[in-house]
Amino acid sequence: MTHFLDLKDFTKPQLRAMLNAAASRKKARANQPKGTVDQDLPLKGKAIALVFERPSTRTRFSFEMAIRQLGGEVFTVSGAEMQLGRGETIADTARVVSRYVDGIMLRAKEQHTLQEFAAAATIPVINGLTNRTHPTQVLADVLTLEEHRGAIDGKRIAWVGDGNNVCASWIEAVGVLGGSLKIASPESLRPRSEFLNWAKQIKAEVEVMTSPELAVAKANCVVTDAWLSMHDDDMENRHNLLQPYQVNEALMNLAAKDALFMHCLPAHRNEEVTDQIMDGPHSVVFDEAENRLHAQKAILLNCFGKL
Ligand code: CP
Ligand code: NVA
To answer: Going by CA atoms, what residue is nearest to atom 1 of ligand 1?
Structure first.
């Protein structure tokens, strides 16, 4: 049984196999109507549940469509409609759900919920975002980067803003797949030390700094995210701290001429990124959103031993 909990749980060849499968499946169904299935129906006979303790647009739509196109059955439940957090242990919930469905994607509020669920489940569990990481997003982001600019190895990536869950998965992606990552954050919003220590230990090219200008200089790809994540509540403080980290034309001009701009979305226009950059020639944000669909397929196939 194979879970998909974090990018660092996989080897480079395993992640490369997922990226290749995502790219080739995307190519194979170019221009096909969205409601049609992929020819080989690799998830025929499998039922997969999507459980959300937090709201979602992209993760929900892309997983639902990925499973349908792969020939599987899918349904979505909100965590609030379940007995989660009403006294039944997470482990017991995982044991019960494992008797009904063949796999589960869980967007958990807390990392420990995901971990307890995965430890007790007897079916594959996919991390659809926690307060700590967002691995399905960053696999799609690497797919997007490589689609536009070739292999991530050797690429300079700049993360600007909050050192949050998406940033943590970027650290893991660079650690496993290569490339370099410069992270510019206010000191109090740096990535958790567990991620930075891991990067250091495996000698990944990950650097943390406070200056967005230094991080972005000559970057091939500039990435940011909302200043306030779903698990945060200190809006005013974050707005004050992160104002100098807005991705705008002046900052983007310091990057390589053909640099990409990425954002996992939802974006707060004219806060962390200006309209000009979101809608300008560097931006590949809607390709990232589309690529969630293709990446989810590869993740699912890996979980079911079908890559
Ligand atoms: N990027 C992302 O995960 O978006 P949703 O919260 O809409 O799923
Ligand atoms: N960092 C954001 C990502 C949303 C997809 C959050 O956790 O809210």
So the answer is: 264
